[in-house]
Structure formats: C-alpha cells, structure tokens
Write a structure and sequence with these properties.
Chain B: Keywords: Heme, Iron, Metal-binding. The complex is a heterodimer of chains A (about 650) and B (about 150). By secondary structure, chain A is mainly β. Chain B has about 150 residues and is mainly alpha-helical. Chain B has a domain at about 80-155: Cytochrome Bc1 Complex, Chain D, domain 2, CATH 1.10.760.10. Classes of the chains: A mainly beta (about 650), B mainly alpha (about 150).
Chain lengths: ~650, ~150
C-alpha cells in the first residue's frame, strides 16, 4: 500500500512538473507544426539567415530578396517596373534602364531568376531575370543588389523560357513563348501555321564585367517555347527547351494546343552553333532593340539602340538541333546535377518523363529518328527514355534536385511536392502545398552542386492561409526541410507579386562582397558635387542646375533664390557621407516625380517645374540623425523675367565661402 | 525513501531542462555601484580611444599639410569650418587643445569616441550631431592632422 501511494505521489509530482513546463515538447493541437519546426526557421534577433533567396516578383516586375529559413524580406530590387521608393525609373539616372524599342515602359512581368555559375557551381556574381511581356533580360549585380543591365530581345514575344545560364555563364538564354511572324508583318492570324517563328536567343556574358551581348538567335518552328535548362557536366554544351502547341494553333489554345499525344523538348547543341557562328556562319539581319547599361561610377544608365542581329536557321547547322518527344504539353524542363537526366513535366500527362542524355547521343549516332518537323529530326521516344515516374500526381510543373540522388517535383492540380528517386523512379514522399504550387527551388538546385537542405514551394493560390485583405490576398511561399527521408513543412511566408521561380544561394558566398557605400573619389557623375565648397546653382536659359550636397543633417545650399516660374530645375544631389547605412532622401513640394533616395557617395537627379511664385520647401525624406527634422531648405520662386539674381547660401554665407 | 529521492532528482532534472537557460541559475549579484566617470582633466594627456595609441610629431611637413587640406575639404568641410563653429566645432588651433592621438581617433573611430570618451561625449552633448565616420584611412587622418597643425587659433 505504501509503495502504491509512493508511486501515485511520484506520478502526480511528475505530471505537475511536466504540465508546468511552458511550451514543452508535448505538441497536442497548436497547429500542424511542432515546436521543432519553429526552431528550425527561427533566426534570433541580430543573427543572419543561412541562405539568400531571390524570388521573382511576377507581375510586380521586380525581384525580392528573402532570407531562408526565416522567410524575412530584406529588399525588393526594382528591375522592370518603376519604384518610387528608390526613384528607379523616376530619377534622371535610371530612366534609360526602362527604354525599349517601344519607348519607355514602366512595367513588366518578371519570371525566372538564375544566379551566375562557374564550373557548374553558383559563383554569386549576378542574378539574371527575364521580363516576359516586352521581352528583356536583366542582370542584377550582387555587390550592390541593383539592376545594372537590361537587354531587349527582338523577334520574341512572351519571353518565358528564359533567363537560364550555362554552367560557366557563357550564355544566358531567352526563348519566346509566343511565336510571331518573322520579320514582323501585317498578315492574317489564321495563316500562323508554317509562317510564324519561335526565336531562341543566346546572349553572351562577358566573364569579366558581365556585359551582355546577343550572340545569335535561332529561328525555330512556330511552337510555344515554355521553359528551358542548360545541360551540365556531361551534357554541358547543350540546352533543352520544352515546347507546347506543336499543333501551331492560333486560337482557343487550351483545346487546340492539347491535341498531340506528344510535344517536344528541343535539344540544342549551342557549342556547335557557336562554332558555326564564330566561323562566320549565320545571317546578319536588320532589327531594333535597346541595350541599357547602368554604370556604377557615373551612377547613370545609358540606353543604346542596336540595329543588327545574327540569325541562325536550324537547317544551316545540321546535327545541332533535335526534338525529344515528350508527353502532353511539357512545362518544366529540368536537368539533374550530373547532366544525365532531362526531366519533362507533361502538364496533362499521367507520368513524369526522364530522358537520358547518353541514350540521346546514341540515338543521334544511330539515327533512330521518328520523322522530322520542319527539317529537325525527331528522336524515337523509346530510344531516349531513361524512365518515368508512374502516377506521381496531377499536373507536374517543375523539378529540382538535392544533390543526393533525389528529385522534387511540383504538382499544380493535386497541389503537392513529390520526392522521388533518380534512376529507380520510385516515389519516396509527398507533401501537400497550400495551394496549387507552381515552381519550387532548392538553393543551387539548378547547378552541379545543390545545397539540399530546404525546398521552397511557390504557390499560385493562397485563399485562407493568411488574414484576409479583401478580394486580393497575399502571394505565398512555403519552406520544407528536406534533410530527412520525409519532407517536413516548416514555414509559410507571404511574397510580393507572383513568385514564379527563385534562385537560392548560401549567404556566405555573397554577403562579404556586399558593398557598404560608394567611394566619393570614384564618383564620376556628370553633375557630382564632391565637397560643399563646390556646391552651386547655374542658370542656362530657363534650365537651372542645382549642384547640391547632403550630409547629417543639412543640405548645401539650403537657401536658393532667383528661380522663376516656367524654369526647368534640376536637383543634382550628392550624398557626402562615407559610412555604412547613411542614405539621405530629398523631395521638393509639388515635384511631379518620386523622392530621391541617395546612398553614401552617390549622386542622383530629379526635375522640378515651379508653377507658382512663393517660397517652397524641400526636406530629407529618410530619417538620418537626431537632427533629421532640421534637414530642410527653401527655394524662392519669382515671376518669369524677375530681376532677383541667382543666389545660394548656407547659414547666411555663400556655400563656397572659406 | 530511495524513491522520493529519485522523484526529486527527476523533477529537478526536468525543471532545469525546461527552458534550458542554465544562466538563470547563476546568482544574481547585487548591482555594483555605478562606475564613477573619470573625466580626464588635462585634455593634452587624453589620447582617446581607437587605433592610434602613440604618435611622434616632427617639424611641420608643408606638403603633407597641403594634401591634408584637400582631404579635409572633400570629407570634412561640410560640417567643420576652421574659423567658426558650424555643425561641429571650429578647428583653428585644435592641436593646441587636443593630443594628436585624440584628434586622429576622433576621425577614425568616432562612434566609440562619442560613446565612451568623456571629452567626446561632452562635445556630442553640446553639438548634438554625432561626428560622422567618413571612412578615412589612417594615412588620410594623419594628413589632416598635419593640416590642423598649420592653422593656429586666432
């Protein structure tokens, strides 16, 4: 009896102790996540994330920078759309970045970021991303996290099978989703078939400075080129593009482009075409496209119109292009880290197709052809097939790899991520996504060396996952731990725009290269003011140029007189600070543009058209110091033709005194 | 009896693993008396805090001073005039008021100086705008010091 009592006592004490243990291990019903999932994504205050994730902003046109595993948003890099916060596309320096053959375009739809590679591994120098609507490829410099180059792609439309890089960043490719007449001309739409062309563009990347240049454009049959990926390792030198609408329908594509049992993956031996071009091959054709470059030293972009392009027709280079039959309108086209398997995700197919690169070469060698399309040989399906994942799910879209022999594929219709094994094609695990996942991303998952710790699923539908915000709800991504046999959902987090694709990289590869400020002595801006003594105001007809400086916490000059109604006033403002994280902003009452947000050592310009006489203030828009509220100034505006002279002072003295 | 001990031991083990913060068990020491601020009375002995611990000055080097004047103009003149108080103190004759080490440390390590050095703290209280770090090199700071030596108080 005594013993029993003692035992009961012991159990009571123990259970008291257990239940008093706050957020202890027993996870009864506090949501789907165990506390260990929370710990896995918890990055303590002041600590850094392990990975950067560059997530496309979709119809925002931008590129968002998140930390993983926390899912915290660090920066939205303006790429194809204007950004009033950063003055991108508003200040005089960056307006040329958005110039195209159609003129200035303030928006695009950004899709597929890809990080530059050396020897098949992420080198963290640049991120490339495609503008889908008005075809362009942009390059973002990962020392400044700013867009430094945008090249327009002529003869293309719906620039979707882009912007993927080869394993030494020799090329970034841009493939057209919509075929169009080439050259463009006035013709009946119904005559599409056989007359429209699909341009696949190879843009060379300078290994030193990353400068982009269109090397050649392949004029393919008029299919829809949906996605692409480079060969790597043994298949380096090849590029693979999925196609749909090989039916060449021009209306009600959801029915008419879903007729064929198989469409194609186009396999392009770009090395062979490069050699052909280097030996003088190809046809120079007239064209018109913009090439925009931002110079870090002048802090200014220039836009140059190009008028010629080198066209290669598939029939010009026999043996360079083949079609791999792939079931049912394949979307994703993904190559495993070894370069052996090319995975085609037939959107409407019951199975996932893996082609073998080795077998593809053998089939080419043995001429195992199943006819041709527009002169391009079609390889026999059975001859190149490595295997298929049977009944994996519904609506496969994209596949990435963990570097440990596993592949992860998204299924849009059945809304899940499925883990399967390369070679055996067996399904290992499946986890639901909330909801309707599109792309997924493993850091380095599109390289020879993936960092297989997390997979990020980017969803197309959010519905009830967050607090409602009216009819439009946030876009969303989900993070899974993939270090175990089974995947584990760790985190939901909201994203900007529509997250089409992402590129992840270990933070250690790039964070030490991140620039802290721009050196004043290296500033070569046309209107730089390198010290307060050089600040001035210069009238040239009705154009007035204000050379202004800013430092904690005043402008020089801060009192300006002699401006007249009808003038065109340029504020060229230089931030004289030379320290980390001390930007200043500026805006002028009534300026029909955005603020400027100027980094230390940088110069930016906005224009102001004074419309009314009076004394009008300007101020610093970025809280810069304890005396930020004091950082302000006045401009006196006199009637047109007034005799008030131009003066510019600070503290009652001409700024160039002493 | 043995069982009781065991129960206690387990309970203690669980308790202390709960939250896992071993440090909390450390005895909380009685708060120390606030450290008295020792204000250096003689600024000409105060070397400040930073990379410069000792510097020996020779004859004024006019070439260095001229170079220093240019650096000063580019990086410092937005806040400092020689002749008068501006955003920061007027600097004519500063080498007669401060040690060369203090001046260079104030240029090279302003954040720590205004936080810890009593004289620099006093200046911040008076001028309110913290001295900006302009990321100068030691060499540039040395050139500026040489320039300061040439500008005497009026």
């Amino acid at each position: 009896m005594k013993t029993i009592f003692k035992s009961l006592f012991a159990i009571t004490v123990l259970s008291l102790v257990f239940s008093s243990c706050g957020n202890g291990g027993s996870d009864k019903k506090s949501g789907a996540l165990s506390s260990s999932a929370a710990e896995k994504v918890y990055v303590a205050p002041g600590e850094h994330d392990e990975f950067y994730a560059f997530v496309s902003g979709g119809f925002s046109g931008q590129l968002a920078v998140y930390g993983l595993p926390s899912g915290r948003l660090f920066k939205v890099i303006p790429v194809f759309s204007v950004d009033a916060e950063k003055a991108y596309g508003f200040n005089e320096e960056t307006k040329p970045m958005l110039n195209t053959s159609h003129g200035f375009i303030p928006w695009d739809d950004s899709h597929h970021p890809d990080i530059s590679q050396t020897a098949g591994e992420l080198d963290g120098r640049w991120v490339f991303i495609n503008g889908n609507n008005t075809p362009r490829i942009a390059k973002i410099d990962l020392t400044t996290f700013e867009t430094t180059e945008i090249i327009e792609i002529p003869n293309s439309a719906g620039n979707h099978s882009s912007s993927f890089v080869t394993e030494n960043t020799e090329y970034v490719v841009a493939g057209t989703r919509f075929s169009v007449p080439y050259p463009q001309k006035d013709m009946p739409i119904a005559e599409y078939k056989g007359n429209f062309k699909g341009a696949l563009t190879f843009i060379s990347v300078d290994p030193e400075d990353g400068g982009m240049d269109i090397k050649f454009q392949i004029m393919m049959p008029g299919f829809n080129y949906d996605l692409s990926h480079p060969g790597r390792g043994k298949s380096h030198g090849w590029f693979f593009f999925t196609t749909y609408n090989t039916e060449e329908a021009n209306s009600l594509l959801e029915v008419n482009a879903s007729q064929n049992d198989k469409d194609f993956i186009a396999a392009i031996n770009w090395k062979k075409i490069e050699e052909y071009v280097n030996n003088g091959g190809g046809t120079k054709a007239p064209t018109n496209y913009a090439h925009n470059v931002y110079d870090e030293h002048t802090h200014t972009a220039t836009s140059t119109m190009k008028d010629e392009i080198l066209i290669v027709n598939p029939s010009d280079v026999p043996g360079a292009i083949y079609f791999l039959p792939t079931p049912k309108s394949p979307h994703g086209c993904d190559v495993d880290p070894s370069g052996e398997y090319i995975i085609g995700s037939g959107k409407l197919a019951a199975e996932l197709t893996a082609h073998s690169f080795t077998k593809m070469l053998a089939a080419i060698e043995g001429e195992k052809f199943d006819g041709e399309a527009y002169g391009i040989p079609i390889l026999q399906y059975e001859e190149i097939l490595a295997g298929a994942v049977k009944q994996p799910g519904l609506g496969p879209l994209h596949t990435e790899f963990d570097g440990k022999g596993n592949a992860y594929t998204t299924f849009f219709i059945s809304s899940e991520v499925v883990k399967w094994k390369l070679g055996t094609w067996e399904v290992i695990d499946r986890k639901p996504t909330y909801y309707s996942v599109g792309h997924l991303m493993i850091p380095g998952g599109n390289s020879r060396k993936p960092f297989g710790k997390y997979v990020l699923a980017m969803n197309k539908i959010t519905k009830d996952r967050y607090l409602p915000t009216g009819p439009e709800v946030t876009q969303s991504a989900q993070l899974y731990d993939i270090t175990g046999e089974k995947m584990e959902l760790l985190l939901d987090f909201p994203t900007i725009g529509e997250p089409h694709y992402a590129a992840g990289i270990p933070a250690d590869i790039i964070k030490a290269n991140s620039k802290k400020f721009f050196k004043l002595e290296e500033n070569k801006h046309k209107y730089v003011t390198k010290s307060e003594a050089d600040a001035k105001v210069v009238r040239d007809g009705n154009e007035v140029h204000i050379y202004m400086t800013m430092i904690r916490s005043h402008f020089a000059p801060d009192n300006i007189e002699g401006i007249q109604v009808g003038d065109e006033v340029f504020f060229h403002v230089t931030n004289l600070e030379q320290d980390y994280d001390v930007p200043h902003g500026i805006s002028m009452i009534g300026a029909q543009t955005s603020e400027l947000l100027i980094m230390p050592g940088q110069t930016e310009t906005f224009k102001w058209y004074p419309k009314n006489v009076g004394v009008w203030p300007f101020y610093c828009t970025d809280f810069c110091s304890a005396l930020h509220q004091e950082m302000q100034g006045y401009v006196r505006v006199s009637p047109k033709g007034s005799s008030v002279p131009i003066t510019f002072t600070l503290d009652g003295d001409a700024v160039d005194a002493e | 009896m043995k069982l009781k001990v065991l129960v206690l031991a387990i309970a203690v083990a669980i308790m202390s693993s709960c939250g896992g913060d071993e440090k909390k068990k450390d005895k909380v020491e009685a708060p120390k008396e606030a450290e008295k601020e020792v204000v250096e009375l003689d600024p000409m002995k105060d070397k400040g805090i930073g990379p410069i611990s000792s510097i020996t000055l020779g004859e004024i080097d006019e070439a260095m001073a001229a170079e220093g004047k240019e650096v000063f103009k580019a990086k410092c003149s937005a806040c400092h005039k020689m002749s008068k108080r501006f955003v920061g103190p007027g600097l004519a004759g500063v080498t007669e008021r401060r040690t060369p080490e203090w001046i260079m440390n104030m240029i090279l390590n302003p954040e720590e100086m205004v936080e810890k050095n009593p004289a620099a703290k006093q200046l911040l209280a008076e001028y309110l705008s913290p001295m900006a770090n302009q990321s100068l090199t030691e060499k540039e700071a040395r050139l500026i010091l040489e320039y300061f030596r040439t500008v005497k108080a009026e």
